[in-house]
Amino acid sequence: MGEQPNGGATSKQVRMVAAALILRGGEVLICQRRPDQPMALKWEFPGGKMEPGESAEQALKRELEEELGIDAVIGSRVAHTRHTYRSGGAVDLQFFVVHTYRGELRNVIFNEFRWCPLKDLPRYDFLTADRDLVRDLAAGKLL
Fold first, then answer.
1. C-alpha span between 9 and 4 (Å, rounded)
2. Which of 4, 6, 19, 30 could make an SS bond with 47 (beta carbons 3.0 to 4.6 A apart)?
3. pTM, full prediction
4. Each residue of 100-118: b (16+ CB within 10 Å) or e?
């Protein structure tokens, strides 16, 4: 009812994404995409796309298990942004704090990951959609 075939010919679907700010003292975990992925070698925060019927928190818990092998306790949402790329694709990003998790961090899908002091975040080449958040985090505005 009211749906357009193929989601509408002119507009691309908005990807709903949940990402984690996994904190350890004054540091946050950042992850680098592999060379064979879209937007290769860009840095990002771990997380991923929400599946139909999943809440942002459920999706993030699942993604962190898949990407890093941890059972995370998802904290409060600290930021929500929408970004439209030049290609026309759009992403709706929700960022949640993670202070605690069970299990040992394992790099399952990334080129690499590292703990980064919040103030040093702007030194890394982040995905465009993450850059405002990176600036705010480095300036001490969100946490």
1. 8
2. 19
3. 0.89
4. ebeeebeeebbbebeebeb
pLDDT tens, position by position, 63-104: 999 999 999 999 999 999 999 988 888 999 999 999 999 999
Provide the pLDDT for residue 11: 52
- Contact at 8 Å (CB) between 103 and 71? yes
Is 28 within 8 Å of 35 (Cβ atoms)?
Answer: no
Q: How confident is the model at residue 6 (pLDDT cuts 50, 70, 90)?
A: very low
Q: Which CATH class is domain 14-138?
A: alpha beta
Of residues 7, 53, 69, the one with CA closest to residue 61: 69
Q: Which residue has the tokens 């749906």?
A: 3
For residues 20 and 38, give the distance between their C-alpha atoms in angstroms, rounded to a whole number: 20
